[in-house]
User: Fold this.
Amino acid sequence: MFLLLSSLALLTLLILFLISKSHKFHGSSRSRLLPPGPSGLPLIGNLHQLGKSPLHCTLHQLSRRYGPLMYLQLGCVPAVVVSSAGMAKEIFKTHDLESSGRPLPVTIQKETYNRLDLVFSPYGEYWREVRKICIIILFCTKSVQSFRFIREDEISILIQSISKSAATSNPINLSEMIFSTANSIICRMAFSKSFHRGASETSSFYEMLDERHALIRSFAFANYFPYVGWMLDSLTGLNTRLERNFQQFESFYRQTIEGHLDLKRQNPEKEDIIDTLLRMQKDKSSAIDFTLDHIKAIVTDILIAGVDTTTATLVWALTLLAKNPKVMKKAQNEVRSL
Assistant:
């Protein structure tokens, strides 16, 4: 026991020493002209100021004091927070090329298959080609309209479920129901499979998906202390969870793709996204030398980003309607007049 405690103590001291060296190395960035911001602590910078309340509330309060363009030191990582529409336009429109890069969090590093996806791919020829595939082929007007029957089916199921719960006066978790509906729409478009939360055959899928979302939101030391953070993430068990979840998705994708490649599979009435990408791989109709990793990376973007953003948008829209009865009444009248 004494030997174990001594080893842990030495490891902790080593980590702190390396963090300190790394922080000093990156500290030279402060000598550049930077926006105003709160003073930070040694080693951790401003990280301790971000956990007291919801992040957006904390950043809003800080921006009221330091302005719409604010500098924060997140461990060893410098960050600039933009808190006004005018400043956001200046950065993302006027200086869009300088701001086009995106850091890759360790919590989704493997899921991008070394940045083969669209969301985290660096700006360049590959990004332009993947973006063209998504806009012209996967999500063009013709393709979106062809999936209309899926959206109508799933929305009908959602309305029936809400009506059934309302008839019995049972409380419902609308956020969860919207998430399930958005997920089923995306999955039917991508895999030709429907995944409704609550069904026994889909429980393992939702456990895997919920874990993925939880991991994306998890605090990872390696994001803020790039050279030594992985040690602490190993001690907390984060690295083990990330690897286990990645392998679960790998197994799911492998089974799904093998099912689409099965020669005994009946020709589908409607080609899904996996079918389209596999056809592009076979026909070599893209400038990209498509591999299965490319397909899995693009589908991961669609599955994770598509479901999460759709759910968040709808939940916030309903929240704002609930807070504004006049607007709610107007929306209800418009819906009932259809």
Remarks:
- The chain has a mean pLDDT of 87.
- The chain is about 60% helix and 5% strand.
- The CA atoms of residues 36 and 70 lie 5 Å apart.
- The first helix runs from residue 2 to 26.
